[in-house]
Amino acid sequence: MADLLFKIGDFVVFINFLSLLFFVKGKVKDDSVLWSLTVLCILNGLMHGWGYFLKSKFDVYDQEFMRHLWYLSFSAFYVLGAAFLLLIHKYMNVVAGTFSKVLSASFVVVTLLTVIRHLTLVVFNLDISLVKYMYSFGIPTVNLLVVICSVFVTIRLILSKRSL
After folding, report:
1. How far apart are CA 19 and CA 33, in angstroms?
2. In degrees, to the nearest 5, what angle opens at C-alpha 162 toward C-alphas 161 and 164?
């Protein structure tokens, strides 16, 4: 299952990067979407690389330590991503659009799923099936929904620009 989730992650990173590339190439003037896609691509790339790195170290280091590191680091990535998205909009004096708000909400949802999984599995040593499935399927689902949103927003803005 882990390999499938990493393949989905490869797809998510690639498609989000393509959305940013087409958005920039299309010369669309929507700073909120531009900053949101940029933060999304940077965060996706960093987390995906970090995930592959951690996966390669699970057999090398103490598994308990690696589980803590896995869940806490990904939670931190998402919290920092949401904070950075908010700060960049504020610093650049850009009003956060719908896509930015959806992206921030997705970061919060994934953070909550990760923290709940960490608490139940690693801290309290409870392998609750519902939490396991919510985590295992919830995060890829949220990531795929964000991909759909990023593609939809990019296409919509490029097409609306061309019709003007």
Report:
1. 11
2. 70
